[in-house]
């Protein structure tokens, strides 16, 4: 809700800059997730007994990555508002 209120304060140029940066952050997040998945699959191919522990660790790391990405999105939004 707070993010939406902040977004409403942006002018067209700021909104465009925000969306470009957000897409970059989302792309980096997707790439990180894909890297984690490849590494996890490689580890499981070597030792299937790691499955439960790796699955839990992977889920926790994905959640952490998502939170960091959203924090960066919010930081970018705040920076644009300061520039206004």
Automatic annotation (TrEMBL):
Name the UniProt record assigns to this protein: RRM domain-containing protein
Residues of the Periphilin-1 C-terminal domain: 11-72
Biological process terms in GO annotation: negative regulation of DNA-templated transcription
Organism, scientific name: Caenorhabditis elegans
Pfam families documented for this protein: Periphilin_C
Origin superkingdom: Eukaryota
Underlying gene: melo-1
């Amino acid at each position: 809700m707070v993010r939406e209120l902040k977004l409403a304060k942006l002018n067209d140029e700021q909104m465009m800059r925000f969306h470009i940066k957000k897409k970059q952050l989302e792309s980096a997040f997707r790439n990180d997730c894909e890297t984690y998945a490849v590494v996890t699959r490689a580890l499981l191919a070597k030792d299937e007994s790691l499955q439960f522990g790796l699955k839990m660790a992977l889920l926790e790391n994905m959640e952490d990555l998502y939170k960091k990405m959203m924090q960066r999105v919010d930081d970018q939004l705040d920076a644009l508002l300061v520039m206004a």
